[in-house]
Every structure is written in C-alpha cells, then in structure tokens.
Specification:
Chain B: Belongs to the bacterial solute-binding protein 5 family. Chain B: Keywords: Signal. Chain B: It comes from Jiella pacifica. Chain B: Pfam families: SBP_bac_5. The structure holds two protein chains of two kinds. By secondary structure, chain A is an all-alpha fold. Chain A has two domains: 72 residues, no CATH class; 214 residues, MetI-like (MetI-like fold). Helix content of chain A is 77%, strand content 0%. Chain A is built from 14 helices and no strands. In chain A, helix 6 packs across helix 8, helix 7 crosses helix 8 and helix 8 runs antiparallel to helix 11. Chain A is globular, with a radius of gyration of 24 Å. Chain B has 17 helices and 21 strands. The N terminus of chain B is likely disordered. At the A-B interface, helix 2, helix 3, helix 5, helix 7 and helix 8 of A face helix 1, helix 7 and helix 14 of B.
C-alpha cells in the first residue's frame, strides 16, 4: 500500500510540471494586460509601459518562466500583480471559507442523499422511489442561484432565521459560523444530493439482486443491516468516486454560490484573478486545484481498499 | 420486517430531541445581528485591489485615497479651490506660488507632515496626472523653503495651478510621506501611511473581500464646515468597512436586512426593491454624474478621414443610447457639453450634430461625399461591464442605419483595455471605436479632460488625435488669467473638438446611492466620503 501511495505521489510530479508550463503559456497567450488594470482609464501608452517594466512583464517569456519556476521551487508563489499581496496570503484568506462550505455541503449531502438513494432502491418502482427521483431531478434542474435566492427570501428575509450573506470563521463562534454557512451549503447540496442519491440508487439496485443479499435476508438479518451493512458497502465504490470528485469540484471553487451568499472563497478569487489577468494568482490557484485533484483521487483509490476487501494495491 | 415498520429503531433519543428543541428555539430567536453602531458597513462600486492612488485613476482607489490621505487643497461646492492641508499666496506676476502647511498635521505613525513630504508627493503626482504633466512643463522649480513652506515657481504663466491641485477626481493631490512619495511613479507603493481622517487597517485588508478603515484620533480637522473636499473632515464613527459584494442582488438583500448601511451605486432596475422599504433612503449623492462617450481611432481607416468621423457623429444620437443604458428619465439627460452640463465651462458650442439625434440619411450622404468604401468599423463591446455594454449595441445599429459597415466585437473589459492601447492596424489587432464613461469632474475643463489632448501617437489618449491646433488652444486656456477669457477659449476648444470629432459625448447619467436611515450627514459631492457621517442605532 505504501509503495503504491509513493508511486502515485511521484507520478503526480510530472503532471504538475506539465500543468505549470501549460498554464503559464496559456495565460501569456491570452489577450490582456495587468498594467492596464492597474493604471486605470487615463493612462497613456508610456505610463502603461512604465508599469509593465516595473512588474517584469516586458521580460522575455523564458526569463519570466525561469524566474517563476525558481520562486516555486523555493516555496514562493510570488505576489499578486494587482494588490501586491503575497499569493499564499491571498489563498490562505480564502481557504477557510471554501473548505467550510465544501465540508458542510458534503455533510448535508451525505446525510440526506445516501438514505434517499437506499430508500429509493429498496422501494424500487414505488411512489417513494418516484418521489425521490422527482426531488433529484428538481435539485439537478434548478440553477443554483435560483435555489439560493429562494432560500434567502424564505429563511433570511421572511423568517429572519439566518443572515442574508457573509462568512464568519468558526473561531468567532459556532453559531455565527453555522448561521452563515448553512444556507449556502444547503443551496449547493441540492445539486449534490440529486447526483449522489441517483448514484446510490443505481448502485444499490445492482447489488440488491445479488446472491449474498438474498443469503443475508435468509439468515434473518434485519432489513437495516442488509441494506446498510451488506448492500450499501458493496455499492460504495462508485458512490465514493462521485463524492470525492464532487468535493474536489467544491474546493476548486463554486463561484455562483459564493457570489450569491457573498462567501469570500477560492472561486471568487479565481474569477477576479482571471478578469484582472493577475498571472501569479491564477497560476498558483490552478496548481493548487491540480494538487487537490491528485490528492483526492489518491484518497478515493485508497478508500476503495477499505470499502471492498477484494481491492488490493 | 419492513424498513418502515422498524422505524422506531430510528426514533431520536431524549437527548437528541432536547437538542433539536433547543436548536429550534435558538433558530427562531435569531435575528440578523445588528452591526456595531459605530461601524459603517458600505458596499462600494467595486472591490479595492490597487492601494496606490497615484499609480491608478481607478475610482475605488481614489476613494481609498480620500479615506487615508489628505489633500493640499480642497474644492468646494462652488468649484473653487480652498485651503485644506495648505494655504497659499500668489505673487503679483502670477509666477510664484508660496504654500504654507497648517498646524497639527501628523502622519498616522505620529511624525509631523513637512513641506518635503508635500513637494515629493507633488512631483510624483506630476509624473502621472495628465493636467499636472502639462503644468510641470511650465514649472521652473518646486522646492521646500522651510519645514512648513514650499514654493512653486513657474517659468511662464499657467493660471490653472490651484484648480489642478484642488481637483476632486482623476488624480487628486494626495500627500504621502517623502519616503513613500519617492517610489518610482510606475511602481506601486507598499507603505500606506497617510495623514488623513481615517487609518487603513492593513492587517484586515483582504483584496476582493474587504477593506477596513478606523478613525484617526490624531486628525485635526479644519474649522470650516465641510463642502465637497474642502472644509472640516470630522469623523463621527469609529470604523468604516468596505465590504465587497459581487452580486448586486445580494447587496440589496443585505441592506434590506440591515446587514450593511450603504450601497454606493444602486442599479436602476433594482430601485423598486429599495424604494419600497421605509428604512432606506435612495438618493443621488453626486448630482453632476457621469458622461458616457465614444472614442474613434484617428490612426486607422476609415476614421483617419475627418469627414467619415463627422458622418459617424451624425449617424449617432444621445437619446437612443441613454435609453438603452439607463432607461429611466430621472437619472439621464442629453448634454452637448464636453465639459459636462452644470459646470463652469459648460457650453453648447459645436454640439449640433450629436444633439440633433440620429440623422441616417444625412450620414449616408456625407459618407458618399467622403468616398467611404465600406471598410468595416471594428467596434469593441465589453460584455462584462454593465455601464458600458449597452452603448456599442445601439451605436452599431445607428451606424448601420447611417450607411456604415460595422463589425461589433464582444470581449471582456480587460481584453478591451489591452486592445485599445494598440496603435496597429485593424488587421493586426487594432480597432476603430469604443465607449467609456467619466465622472464629470474628470472632464470639466480642457485641462482635465483626457480626450482633449492633440499630442498624437506619443502623448494623446487612446485614439491618438494628432491635433496641434487643439494643443495650442489648451495652452492659451491654461495661460488665460480671467474667467471670461477661459470660458471663451473653452467654447472655442469644444467647437473645434466637435468639428474634428475628437470624441463623441453621448449623454449624461447619475447613479443613486442607498443608505439606511440610521446614517445621516452623507455629503453630496462627486466622490463618496465618510467624514461628517453619523450613525444612529438602527
């Protein structure tokens, strides 16, 4: 197992190098000039050139890439071209809101979607099954910003249970944190609940017809034990894959939900950086995202071995 | 045994039930927590990222400048320069200006503000500001003559010195410590020590999220009542936080829910949601408003031909464009003055072609006379900026009706600002036409107005008109010593600028602000400032 993990980590190094090179070149080939964003509307060509010079943007591409790679190897992601804030500080400021949103969303999703999926499979073809599927289709079909505004109108404006927007760190207290993260997480969860409930239902339907399920029932085990201990565990591999990639997607940024609820997460940072052509920030964010995908895929693969004893590395 | 029949196995325990009950009670009792009575939470028109108010003309950075820096001079509501940090005396020949800093000026780190700081700041400003660059061509020397005095000597008359130093927008004369002001003008500063009425709380700054300002307890305001950027800057709250909300609907919900106190710019189409709430006040704080305009590129065909530029202006009209941009008569008006209506130099001189509305038949005739060969007009449309996105769409249709072939190219604003800096031909990435907006104080005189510069490829603003006659007239304006002569020259400049189609103003508009009624004392002026503002308990 450890040899497998080491191999996977080593294999990710060339992936990251290719990503870094690709992102660097792609950004430089995209039209846009950070100097123009900094200088504002009144700048003359000479003033723009002066700013480009001071930011090192007039250097040849190879020189810029070598400088950036050298910084990366020493753990320095550089500074934002626009605000001059260190890139790691910017990412650090946005990491907690993003992680909080992703984790709470995933908790809500798993708590609701797995039982829904199991129930729908167990009651296959019944009204319950149809109801679960209808809820899934609805959750999948309504755009997330519409769901968000509906939740805000009901829970924040009409009932005044939660604030409309914003984020508070968990260090400022459990309720301030929870009251602000719950609605955005619930909004985002509607999509994942739909996805994972359907996936759970499909995977469960596959295994519920298996001999070992019949055997378990014949042994007189309760339905709860049959469903959750025998069937669900065997259906877990595809579900885990979707949960894992869904989680990675959420960490790499869910800009619409972040905007509707004013959560200062990585999604907004990414969009802002792209619009401003803030090269060091975009590069770092894409590297971070790639790293997250590598790690989460690795964790998913490792978890297969725990969920299914037949899988060995 | 069915799953549901065994549901009792899933009944919550007493402990869980108690916890649920407690949660419901807690939830139902929760009302959005009121913010600190001494903190103003404001949503500004954009998030602040660049913190150097000299390197950029971005309005949000200018607003930041007014929070933490002071200006040498202020401008009052009658558009007259007034002392702010400094008073002044002018020699009889008008060539020597002696400035004296007032008592009590201190940096946020406690050090005294000296004339060396003021001189260094003015020199850096002189490298960036268009009007100041023109002024510095006439400056013989600018030197400190004591801790609190400095002298500006001119080599030739330039009578617009005080107006430039007092201007409220573009690049105002924010004064920084000498060590900071010595930063090269093309490089951003990294030390945010000011002497203004608020201090910047750097530790709480999150670009794109929030900027926090706390009251500068050591600031000594002037005794006069506040009037625009002149008079006493008395701070009446402990803290101002600028919260960035990229979604305007969220900002509207937040102010309705009492989570924020102020929205600087309220989209017109969302006004009904705010005007229905008696706890809110919706008003225009900057009655002078904005000018929206089209710029043509003099370097590329077909707009290198003055007759074709004139045909384009004849094909356009202000009202259709304003209707698409604003759509509410209360917040828009046609205006033929390049200096903005309601300003000292406002004039209709030469504006007849644009003020007559779209004249497609006349435009077609003019094009025929000019020998227009159907060369497409590359019109850049920024799709991501709501205040500039509609104008090109309407203009494209009006130009087509006037006989032009138009190639409207949608792009993001960042691509547009990069491409507009290109002096290449259209096939090599150049362009023919784009739109942008200015606040009126940025265009209200021939010196301030960035478009009225005929310096060609080297010195003029994007579009690069090569117009020595215009520059000669601007110099005369700068040298004129009395107001009437200035007005006459300003009118002549405008008539000439329309004649050669330097640019095409397509109307003016205002944007209302929204504040909770707990705020009082917001000053009506072109720049949103937070001195003089009080906050009562909501």
């Amino acid at each position: 197992m450890f040899a497998y993990i080491a191999r996977r980590i080593l294999a990710s190094v060339p992936v990251m190098i290719v990503v870094a090179l690709f992102v660097f070149l792609l950004l430089r080939l995209t039209p846009g000039d950070p100097a123009a964003i900094i200088a504002g509307d009144m700048a003359t060509p000479a003033q723009l050139d002066q700013i480009r010079q001071s930011l090192g943007l007039n250097e040849p591409l190879v020189t810029q890439f070598v400088t950036w790679s050298g910084q990366l190897l020493s753990g320095d992601f550089g500074r934002s071209l626009i605000s001059r804030t260190p890139v790691l500080t910017l990412i650090g400021q946005r990491l907690e809101p993003t992680l909080s949103l992703a984790i709470v969303t995933m908790i809500i999703t798993l708590v609701l979607s797995i039982p829904m999926g199991v129930l729908a499979a167990w009651r296959h073809g019944s009204l319950t099954d149809s109801a679960v599927m209808a809820v899934s289709v609805l959750g999948f079909s309504i755009p997330v910003f519409v769901t968000g505004y509906i939740f805000i109108q009901i829970f924040a404006i009409d009932l005044r249970i939660f604030p409309v927007q914003g984020f508070k760190s968990i260090s400022e207290g459990l309720w301030p944190f929870f009251s602000r993260i719950f609605l955005p997480a619930l909004t985002l969860a509607t999509i994942y609940i739909a996805l994972i409930a359907r996936m759970t239902r499909a995977a469960m339907l596959d295994v519920l017809g298996e001999d070992y399920v019949r055997t378990a029932r014949a042994k007189g085990l309760s339905e709860r034990v049959v469903l959750f201990r025998h069937a669900l565990r065997n259906a877990a591999v595809p579900i885990l894959t979707v949960v894992g990639t869904g989680f990675a997607l959420m960490i790499s940024g869910v800009v619409v939900t972040e905007s509707v609820f004013n959560i200062p997460g990585l999604g907004r940072l990414t969009v802002d950086a792209i619009l401003a052509r803030d090269y060091p920030v975009i590069q770092a964010l894409i590297l971070l995202t790639s790293g997250i995908y590598v790690v989460i895929n690795l964790l998913i693969d490792i978890s297969y071995a725990f969920m299914d004893p037949r899988i060995r590395y | 045994m069915s799953f549901l029949a065994n549901a009792s196995a899933f009944k919550p325990s007493r402990l869980v039930r108690s916890a649920l009950l407690a949660s419901v009670v807690a939830l139902s009792g929760f009302v959005a927590a009121p913010v600190d009575a001494q903190e103003i939470r404001a949503v500004m028109h954009s998030g602040i990222r660049v913190l150097d108010p000299v390197i950029t003309t971005a309005h949000i950075t200018r607003n930041h400048g007014y929070m933490i820096y002071d200006t040498l001079l202020g401008m009052d509501e009658n558009l007259k320069p007034q002392p702010q940090m400094a008073s002044w005396e002018v020699s009889d020949d008008g060539l020597t200006y002696t400035f004296t800093l007032r008592d009590g000026l201190k940096w946020h780190d406690g050090g005294p503000v000296t004339s060396a700081d003021a001189v260094a700041s003015l020199k850096r400003w002189g490298e960036r500001d268009g009007g100041a660059q023109m002024m510095f061509k006439s400056v013989e020397s600018l030197e400190p003559t004591g801790d609190k005095t400095f002298v500006l000597k001119l080599s030739e008359p330039f009578s617009y010195v005080l107006e430039l130093m007092a201007k409220p927008s573009g690049l105002p004369t924010f004064i920084m410590p000498e060590r900071v002001a010595k930063t090269p003008a093309g490089e951003s500063i990294t030390d945010y020590t000011g002497s203004g009425p608020f201090k910047f709380v750097e530790a709480e700054f999150e670009p794109g999220v929030r900027a926090v300002y706390e009251k500068n307890e050591d600031y000594v305001p002037r005794d006069e009542p506040p009037s625009w950027t002149a008079g006493g800057k008395v701070v009446k709250v402990d803290k101002v936080t600028w919260v960035v909300m990229p979604d305007v609907q969220t900002a509207v919900n937040a102010i309705n829910g009492g989570e924020i106190d102020f929205i600087e710019q309220t989209p017109i189409d969302l006004l009904p949601l705010l005007q229905a709430n008696p706890e809110l006040t919706v008003e225009v704080l900057s009655p002078l408003g904005y000018q929206t305009m089209a710029r043509l590129n003099w370097l590329n065909p077909p707009f290198d031909n003055v007759k074709i530029r004139q045909a384009a202006m004849t094909a356009l009209g202000q009202e259709p464009i304003l209707a698409a941009l604003v759509g509410n008569a209360e917040y828009m008006k046609s205006c033929g003055s390049m200096y903005g209506c309601g300003t000292p130099f406002a004039t209709d001189a030469g504006s007849e072609p644009i003020m007559s509305g779209p004249q497609p038949d006349k435009a077609k005739a003019m094009l025929e006379e000019a020998g227009y060969d159907g060369t497409p007009i590359v019109l850049m449309q920024p799709t991501d900026v709501p205040s500039i996105a509609p104008q090109p769409v309407v203009a494209a249709q009006l130009l087509r009706q006037g006989g032009f072939t138009v190639d409207m190219q949608p792009m993001d604003w960042q691509t547009l600002v990069t491409r507009r800096a290109s002096q290449a031909g259209v096939a090599e990435g150049g362009w023919n036409m784009f739109f942008t907006n200015w606040i009126i104080p940025e265009v209200w005189s021939p010196i301030n107005n960035p478009m009225l510069n005929g310096g060609g490829k080297e010195a003029a603003w994007f579009g690069w008109p090569n117009d020595p006659e215009l520059d000669e007239m601007r110099t005369k304006f700068a040298q004129a010593s009395d107001e009437e002569t200035r007005k006459t020259i300003a009118a002549d400049i405008q008539a000439h600028a329309y004649e050669v189609v330097n640019y095409i103003p397509v109307g003016e508009y205002t944007i209302p602000s929204t504040s909770r009624n707990s705020l009082s004392g917001m000053l009506k002026m072109p720049v949103p400032v937070f001195w003089n503002v009080e906050k009562a308990a909501d």
